[in-house]
Amino acid sequence: MKINRKTIQVISIILLFLAGIAIRIILLPVEKADYLTFLLPWVEFIKTHGYENSLRYIFYDYTPSYIYFLVVIAKLGLNPLFSIKLISYFFEFLLAFFISKIVYLKYKTYLSFITAFTVITVLPTVIMNASYLSQCDAIYSALVVGSIYFAITKKNLTAIILLSLAFVFKLQTAFILPFYFVLMLRNQIKWYYFLLIPIIFIVSILPAVYFGGPFKELASVYFMQADKYKYLTLNFPNIYIFADNNLYQFFKTAGLITTTLTTLFIGFWLMNKKYIFDFETSVRLAFICSILIPFILPGMHERYMFLGDALSVHYFLIFRKNIFFTIGIISVSTYSYIRLSRFNEMLPMEPAFIVYFLVIIFAFIDFKKNLKLQTK
Asked: What share of the chain is helix, strand, coil (3-state, %, to 5)?
């Protein structure tokens, strides 16, 4: 019996997806430093301090939104390691779903949908993030990509609600803010919709406040996070690998100013109505923001390319060209993860920096070249 090419593609995709599931199952019992040093002690603290009543204490350096998951895990007596990873697995698949939905907008085929879904779920950094390190970067990334999907489809209120929910989990949501700044300046999203971001953040901390948590500290949790690790970069190959960490405060201030000015430049450049801001422009800009902002921001960790990883794949699946953008970003991100191991001192940051920098330059050139102008 002759098997056609499409059938072979579908079978290959299914096998690849099943391989990703198998890897997750194999890695489910793995306990690494982030879990043993932070997450497990937090769960134990919750148990010994009255479950929801533990929320009166600031025993964590995440936002309360994630700690609510841990309270439920502790109160139900679930296996904390498995439960923490399974929560992240859910959001990994939600991330893949939203990426696939955007790809489907372009190609309108279920093959493109399941291909995108599968590729995202088997990315090495996606698997390492939760399955190996017990991390949760899939949560904010899934909500950000969902927000982008609804922004592209003109469901602006839903887009900003999802963006706000992403922000209550991770400050790294800010990587995508230049994209939304452009939409606001072009009046594609009303400015007052963005008031939902602080409103939803305040609502997210109210359960912790109700059980006795200090409002001021909870409302300023991101400021506390920013000052906890006084390193310009932690295994992340951005411009700060060349900076002297003894000048931390100077470079931190300079980096924040540079990021702000970059955001303003992108916004005021693209607000000009002579540019057509269509589906393809949105995809390109979202990708550039997700890799450019971590490049110029100080204090980045090895995991902070997670959103960029997903959107680099997203870029290739949409345009089916410039695959070196995707390979470059995934390689840089994977390299950063590997530097967490005993190979840290053996692996210099400069090669990853060069690849990262070149991807940004060529991605910007690609964006500018494909920026469409209104015809009179």
From this structure: 75, 0, 20
